[in-house]
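[User]
Um, tokens okay?
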Amino acid sequence: MRLALFGGTGRTGRLLVAQALDDGHQVAAFVRSPERLPITHPDLTKVPMGDPGPRALSAGMKGADAVVSVLNGSTRAGSPAATWTRAALSAMAECGVRRLVVTSAAPVPLRGGPAPLAYRLVGWVFRDAHRDLAAMEDIVRGSDVAWTIVRPPRLTNGPRTGRYRLETGGNVPRGLSLSRADLAGAVLHLIDDPAVAGRGVGIAY
């Protein structure tokens, strides 16, 4: 599978790139600073992220089977999650790519009801990032692609175990943490799962 990846220089993104390559996928990683992705591999292409416009992204996205975003959110930093997701969707339409998997965060309020109290407190502390992620979720939900929004809780630097729980349509009950390595592995798994297309998926231990 050929993946177009946004956020590959982040802590989760680097793990996702490494796992995808280990699993035999081809990866086109859209990055602002290629040196921040210290991975070299014949199946890895580093695509410079310049202008967030569809034409600027289309060349690196051609031939992709799916687009994945693990971008962090921040309204103070120009809302990268919402801005680049909107641009990616436009490029996907131009290139004929239909599958999109993005990561958000469990404390971002779910549609149809308030978040649990613990998540609301966390959401207030990280409200800048979560505003951007909430806007990104709205953009994704309003699109016509086969999207999946993955919503993890607090992320750790623990190992990849594969022993996580998934909750389609909501957050995992009493799920308080997840390793970035397991998040990366779950994202790769969910790309191939048609049952989660058009759904949000909670993930946690």
Q: What stands out?
A: The longest strand covers residues 26-31.
